[in-house]
């Protein structure tokens, strides 16, 4: 008790000494500029949305206004957080008068117009988040004067034009998040000056040209996300030096060339690797299997050849494996050996190796894959054999795509035990036998394609239980034609060729 009293006394003495103990009257005086600036900001918010800022009035002390944080010493506005208030209108240039501002959050509103140049006057600014608005025009060059910025998040706006050289002056920046805008032109070489960066995210813009070598200087980079732009050239060799990377996303660009065989010995900390939708060719590096933390591996839609490494089975944390639409496999017996090896990837949820040149028999081990698997896509290959009876082990399966192969045999009745199955594609194979009436047990089924096989008998009326069926194709078989819609309680069914 005595101790506490002492502290209180000591504290109040200190505040008096420092002259920081303003009365309400005084603080009103000291923050007059801030008050004016905020009221000007409010006046630019459209009238019907201003209600969210009702507390911004003269009967409430400034520092208690919604979203406003003041410094302890000077009672100046140091933080403004208007995130998610659904405000619209424009951002008033008066914001530049909040000269003590360190943190500005306008995220998730409907602000339009441009980012006022006056933001560049906020030289104390460390955090700026204007993501999820509809801001357009150029990112004002003055903003690059805010050299104390640590976070710059402008994700999802309509900001355009190229990134200028001046961006290199933000030497304290850790997070640069500009995804989902309309940024064009090349990366400025000065991007290499941002040596504190841990995340560079410019997904889904129109940036073109090569990735500058200076990016190799960003040795603290943990996330490099530049997918969905128009970048070209070989896999930038400097990226192999960014050994701290945990997430590398360069998908959906125009990159080409081979990956180095020692890939996995260089980027050893990767958890997510997205290279899909480029023109990479050559072998998939076997050393990727040494990246033990890898959870997401997406290499689809490239020109990779050779085998899918059996060593991928060593990736025990793998959840997502996407290798579709390449030229993997050689229509040989061993092509699917990797499938058996993947049984040790007990967290696998998504396996997509469709539309390659994989041959050989569907291994019975496919049913021993992780029971967390939700999606298996093996369609568009040269796979023989039949669906194993123990397929029911994959009890959490939602999509099974085996179409456009050379599969034979029946649909195993046990398949119907996978009650959560939503999509089943078996079209264009050589499967035969009757369609088990148990198929109607899969009541969640939305897409069922059995087209172009040799199924016989009749279409089971139990299909009428599949109340969510949207797409049903059964033609080009030897089925007895029945008018299914009458037995179906299916108002949803949009495509039905039986
Ligand atoms: C901002 O500051 C400038 C210069 O001090 C002043 O002329 C202007 O009126 C201020 N604007 C607002 C809205 O406070
Ligand atoms: C000022 O804001 C407070 C809190 O939102 C509100 O209760 C009060 O009615 C407002 N006063 C005026 C004059 O708008
Ligand atoms: C910025 O705001 C968005 C939307 O609220 C949020 O998701 C994001 O994490 C924020 N950015 C940073 C760097 O905190
Ligand atoms: C930004 O800095 C440049 C010089 O580096 C200066 O000319 C300009 O006036 C500054 N802009 C703002 C808005 O402070
Ligand atoms: C980037 O760094 C180089 C050398 O470190 C320096 O000469 C240059 O002025 C910097 N550029 C910017 C825009 O900060
Ligand atoms: C994106 O920028 C281009 C010019 O680079 C422009 O023609 C286009 O209208 C912009 N799109 C949007 C949505 O702002
Ligand atoms: C990508 O860049 C090339 C030229 O380098 C251009 O022809 C093409 O239109 C660009 N594509 C997009 C989607 O911007
Ligand atoms: C990459 O690292 C190697 C070895 O550490 C070094 O020799 C090389 O100069 C670096 N390359 C770049 C572009 O930084
Ligand atoms: C890389 O992984 C392979 C196959 O899992 C293993 O045989 C090899 O020893 C590993 N190499 C290193 C350097 O860890
Ligand atoms: C799976 O792991 C077990 C135990 O670690 C091991 O004995 C087996 O060889 C592995 N199987 C495959 C296909 O890698
Ligand atoms: C595969 O699963 C079956 C049960 O369906 C089991 O009998 C068999 O031992 C499993 N095989 C492996 C290699 O785990
Ligand atoms: C399908 O449901 C019927 C009736 O509940 C049941 O007798 C049958 O065993 C089920 N089939 C499968 C494969 O689970």
UniProtKB/TrEMBL annotation:
Signal peptide: 1-19
Disease resistance R13L4/SHOC-2-like LRR domain span: 141-273
Main location: membrane
GO cellular component: plasma membrane
InterPro entries: Leu-rich_rpt, LRR-RLK, LRR_dom_sf, LRR_N_plant-typ, LRR_R13L4/SHOC2-like
Keywords carried by this UniProt record: Cell membrane, Glycoprotein, Leucine-rich repeat, Membrane, Repeat, Signal, Transmembrane, Transmembrane helix
Keyword Cell membrane: yes
Segments traversing the membrane: none
Domain Leucine-rich repeat-containing N-terminal plant-type intervals: 31-70
Pfam family, one: LRRNT_2
Compartment(s) of residence: Cell membrane; Membrane
Membrane topology category: Single-pass type I membrane protein
Sequence similarity: Belongs to the RLP family.
Protein name per UniProt: Uncharacterized protein
Source species of the chain: Microthlaspi erraticum
């Amino acid at each position: 008790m005595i101790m506490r009293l002492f502290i209180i006394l000591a504290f109040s003495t200190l505040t008096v000494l420092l002259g920081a103990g303003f009365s309400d009257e005084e603080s009103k005086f000291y923050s007059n500029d801030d008050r004016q600036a905020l009221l000007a900001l409010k006046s630019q918010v459209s009238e019907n949305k201003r209600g969210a800022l009702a507390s911004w009035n003269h009967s409430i002390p400034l520092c208690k206004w919604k979203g406003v944080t003041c410094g302890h010493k000077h009672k100046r506005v140091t933080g403004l957080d208007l995130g998610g208030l659904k405000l619209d209108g424009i951002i008033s240039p008066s914001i530049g008068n909040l000269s003590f501002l360190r943190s500005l959050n306008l995220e998730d509103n409907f602000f339009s117009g441009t980012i006022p140049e006056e933001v560049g006057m906020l030289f104390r600014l460390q955090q700026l988040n204007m993501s999820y608005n509809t801001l357009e025009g150029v990112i004002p060059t003055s903003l690059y004067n805010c050299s104390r910025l640590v976070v710059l998040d402008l994700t999802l706006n309509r900001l355009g034009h190229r990134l200028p050289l001046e961006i290199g002056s933000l030497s304290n920046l850790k997070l640069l998040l500009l995804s989902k805008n309309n940024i064009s032109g090349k990366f400025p070489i000065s991007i290499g000056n941002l040596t504190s960066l841990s995340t560079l995210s410019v997904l889904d813009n129109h940036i073109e040209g090569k990735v500058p070598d200076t990016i190799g200087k960003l040795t603290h980079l943990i996330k490099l996300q530049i997918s969905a732009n128009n970048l070209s050239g070989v896999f930038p060799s400097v990226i192999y030096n960014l050994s701290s990377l945990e997430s590398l996303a360069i998908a959906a660009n125009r990159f080409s060339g081979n990956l180095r065989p020692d890939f996995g010995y260089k980027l050893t900390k990767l958890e997510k690797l997205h290279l899909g939708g480029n023109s990479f060719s050559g072998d998939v590096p076997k050393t990727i299997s040494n990246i033990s933390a890898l959870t997401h591996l997406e290499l689809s839609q490239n020109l990779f050849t050779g085998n899918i490494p059996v060593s991928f089975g060593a990736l025990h944390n793998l959840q997502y494996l996407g290798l579709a639409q390449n030229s993997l496999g050689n229509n040989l017996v061993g092509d699917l050996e990797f499938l058996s090896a993947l049984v040790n990837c007990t967290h696998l949820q998504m396996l997509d190796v469709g539309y390659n040149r994989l041959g050989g028999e569907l291994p019975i081990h496919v049913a021993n894959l992780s029971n967390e698997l939700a999606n298996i896509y093996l369609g568009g290959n040269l796979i023989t054999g039949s669906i194993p009876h123990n397929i029911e082990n994959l009890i959490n399966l939602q999509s099974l795509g085996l179409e456009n192969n050379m599969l034979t045999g029946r649909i195993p009745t046990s398949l119907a035990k996978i009650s959560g199955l939503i999509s089943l594609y078996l079209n264009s194979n050589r499967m035969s036998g009757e369609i088990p009436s148990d198929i109607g047990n899969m009541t969640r089924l939305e897409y069922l394609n059995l087209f172009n096989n040799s199924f016989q008998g009749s279409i089971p009326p139990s299909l009428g239980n599949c109340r969510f069926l949207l797409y049903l194709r059964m033609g080009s078989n030897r089925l007895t034609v029945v008018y299914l819609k009458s037995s179906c309680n299916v108002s949803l069914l949009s495509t039905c060729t039986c």
